[in-house]
Design brief:
Four copies of one chain form a homotetramer. Helix content of chain A is 41%, strand content 19%. The first copy, chain A, contains 14 helices and 13 strands.
Chain lengths: 344, 344, 344, 344
């Protein structure tokens, strides 16, 4: 077991204790299979309410790569690809899962992990004006992450502009919300679940990194965006027999504001760490307002911190420096934050 | 919540209480991601020991269709297909997941859910003798279920013969053990985990239907049967970030004989029900020794039983009869068995 | 070079001399690429006229397996499969090309190579009434061949009924016309190109076996049945740079009734052979009115004929008999027919 | 019919007249199907001799995108991708055909259409040193074009170094020779067919753009590099029934040096045009020694030339300039070259 201070990632612990308790409560009660049970129905209803999207289709899947792969391939036509930032999770870290499903990830330049509306506008225009476009991959979707892989956030006005031009180009907008709780709880965030439901064609509310044992909730704000999505989930091996286990987790997360509280806990911990780092004149590689902090460390700092703190290696920009990621989560313990700050 | 006696399937409840307890115990301890943690390592070691296969590769996936799809596509070359019984789970009930991965399921006639060695021998010979075989799908794998979808069992001698001729044809043998605990615990079974490891190229030990919340343990008895299977799992969206959650469940199931006990509980319940049915002169559609009983009911029996008992509809062979399935499980309550017997 | 009488198949020779002449005429004239040239446009227009389908989309592909694979995968949704006769070309002889594209071929029993409306009606009903249909492969298309792999023909009334019930089930009807010239020229045929255009969602007019060097003309009677089919062809590697070569062949075949004459030539040759066989009391395995004759030969007949005639082996129903196929074509020489008849 | 001077591309005409003549000669002689005929065997033998690769596997396919898609997917494991220049044909112009086969095209920066050994070395090292490499797409192949899409050439020493480091990384080297005749005939080229056979794991000798009606010859210098490639071709819909038509074209191209002569004709025409352009102080966007010339034209030049000459639009680097491509070919007429030069 790791004895260092655990700040390497936000998926190292199990589930929020309320979820384990809820599981124990219903453990020996029989439920219908494949998510057709009443608990899953309740969870879907609560998510629709939270998103102000009463007609939304909601499905529960097990993990982020699975969700991205199934949603993207289900939404795209065979001749379409998806625009994503070079740094997008689907571009880099998913072992080619999108291409395995037959679709090109068309990477675009990013800044702080974000795609700009201008970059997208140009990319759509380049395709549209290409005389040979029938020989090219048609952009059928824009993939964003909120927060991004660099912990940054799209503002509501940015998202509105991207939504507008994506739809004007006849494409769909999809938002990967693997860490969505940490966006929603961030003081500088102005994008709500209802905004996502209004602006996106599909998005997912991350559970795995935000308080659940596992599980992501896919939301299609407009019903029948993808007909027979249930069968598509099954065909992709992503349908759990005991769907009520995933349903129950989201039912618990969306009861009494638990999802918000999970987010707030991590953001508060990150703020304490960020403030201490600032005070000690550490350098941030990226100005990230959510639960991931990216530190640019010199050799001395690196040696000292990595001895006691479990962080994620990000990049080595030059021989003298390294970028390391510190992540807080719903499970971050106050005493670990104290200990980390004492070390800085 | 279902008020009828719950005999519809063996995946209606959560997990064996020992598993929930183990989860609670480690819930807030940080673990490495993607199954690289120590609990998963321990689970793999215990499974290798139980299979008498010290060099086996062991991987944990989430569900049965996923496991079948990932293992089969990883083992087959693009130009190969898989032989399966017409009644095989991969043939019928997986929404085309195998074909979605690019491979033909080549169905063969079955008897009581089983493929005979003779059927397989002929099928391999037909391919081998076809002058146009380079225009055909090459059989690259034989898919069996133990127990079968009809609750029946391959004997050790049957399995040895199938293994021998499959390997002689240059193909791989794969056994779907979604309900393997219920085969292992069956008095008439003579096939052990070590036998499977000796005779198969791949098999999986079912968790979802045998005591776990979810999860299946894939065993490749020979190491590197499929190079880079980890990446293949990831690419198929089947790699859980919190792999320790699946690892822990199998670690618990393979501690102190829990997997065996889960199987024995269901088999004992099934035996009580089978004996009572026999005594009351009910007709069995299939002679099934494991945890699934297939009853041929007339209209009167159907009306009476379906009012009080939750069973699975199987088939309507004629206007006057129906075949219904009763399934027991690790979670079957003695009082529900008593109540069912009283109704017969 | 084969010295036996050449009746093994209908794709052993090059192209009708008119096609080679037309090729030579335009050989050094520059043309636009990818089928955007004027000759291809003319060919499409002539095919639309022949099919009485003025708004049809027409595309030229290179071969039959390619055409089936591209059309079927383009028409089906990911969760759909295609109904086909057990004897259908897509079921058996295409090396799993349809499954390679991700779709299940759902085989149905056939009689003389044909699917009956009743078989299809039951198959659609079985799916529709299945409580678990969302876990199954949805039938999205019916695949027929005209003539069938056994040389038999669907009548207009049969085709109308199949079309009606396929559309009632929400599926598409697709007809493989690899040997369509030999159906159209058959005296007992009552299905015209215009009938196919009225009853099918897609069909192809075979060139490879009917007078062309290579090439098949796909007809979608309703425009935009498959949006961006051009790009789909490209993506499947099926778009020829010099599309005018395929276009020219069909332009020639559909000028001055050449396609009809190619068919009539083969049918006349087949009739002469069939009449002679009947007179000599040979046994036909199948009553086939088109250019393929299936002979049930005893050992003596087999020995005598195979020494001098190149036929196709079909099947050995028992130790004493063999079924051999004799095929005539647009290229069959009268003197070869004379020689064959003399041998009987 | 286009009345401008035809310099838009090298696939606008039919076939070298020797090929049409050869086709006419054998047109009505029956041949075995699917490339199992004697002419195809002869063509394969001639190609083996030309490549000094007596044990090579040689296959004939119909076009370039098809060849790239089939070869790349056949060579890669499911978890592997292919490195290619950003400007590579597989990256841009094939409608996602490689991704459609399930594999990521991992684009790398290019210079004049070429990948440098240093770029490749770094790209392999980045993968190898990535701690998370099991979550990434493994590079399994390097894709080059000779000549490149920009008409430039790899030197023998460059190719040797790329071959060495590709094999050191455990990957395969594949060369797209769509325009190979125009490399082989180029005075500055020092890479022979035998060099390609020694340094590559697979390459193809382009026919479509180099004198054939259609067709590309895939060469695997080591036998059984891809077992059952014949079946893979079939499964991808790329197997022509009348394989002798493709075989005959390559048999003719590799008889009496026709392939070399086709290349020389185009190179001589390109040289005349290049010299005239240089003399008239035109600006070349790329220094390309083969049959494609890339001109940077100002508005006046553009207006004047495009009125009379059919060229390919390449790019508009700024408002005042355009890059246009002039391509010569085996079919370029001397009088068209004269007329073009007179216009400059």
């Amino acid at each position: 077991m790791n004895q260092k201070l655990p700040f390497a990632s936000d998926y190292q612990e199990g589930a929020h204790p309320d979820i384990l308790k809820a599981l124990a409560d219903i453990n020996l009660t029989p439920h219908a299979g494949y998510g057709t049970d009443e608990i899953s129905a309740s969870a879907r209803e609560k998510i629709r309410a939270a998103c102000n999207a009463p007609r939304a289709d909601v499905f529960f899947l097990a993990g982020g790569t699975q969700t991205n792969a199934v949603v993207i391939s289900a939404c795209l036509k065979p001749y379409q690809g998806v625009f994503a930032a070079e740094s997008g999770h689907v571009s880099l870290h998913e072992a080619g899962a999108i291409e395995h499903g037959g679709h090109k990830v068309m990477t675009l330049p990013q800044k702080d992990g974000k795609l700009s509306a201008e970059t997208l506008r140009k990319a759509f225009a380049t395709f549209e004006q290409d005389e040979n476009k029938e020989h090219m991959v048609m952009p059928g979707m824009v993939y964003l992450s909120q927060p991004t892989e660099y912990g940054t956030l799209y503002s509501l006005s940015e998202l509105k502009e991207i939504s507008r031009l994506t739809h004007a180009a006849g494409a769909l907008l999809y938002v990967d919300g693997a860490r969505l709780a940490y966006a929603l709880a961030c003081p500088s965030n102005d994008v709500s679940l209802a905004d996502l439901a209004e602006l996106c064609d599909a998005f997912y509310i991350g559970g795995t990194k935000c308080g659940a044992l596992f599980g992501e909730a896919v939301v299609f704000p407009q019903p029948d965006t993808v007909p027979h999505f249930f069968t598509i989930i099954k065909q992709n091996g992503a349908l759990l027999a005991k769907g009520f286990v995933t349903g129950l987790q989201f039912d618990t997360l969306f009861t009494d504001g638990l999802y918000e509280r999970c987010g707030q806990h991590a953001i508060a911990a990150a703020k304490r760490i960020r403030d201490a780092l600032t005070e000690k004149h550490y350098t941030f590689a990226i100005d990230s307002p959510t639960n991931q902090l990216f530190l640019l460390l010199d050799r001395e700092q690196e040696a000292r911190l990595t001895e006691a703190v479990d962080m994620s290696f990000w990049e080595r920009p030059d021989e003298e420096h390294v970028i390391m990621r510190i992540a807080s989560s719903w499970a971050t313990k106050d005493e670990d934050v104290d200990a980390l700050i004492a070390l800085l």
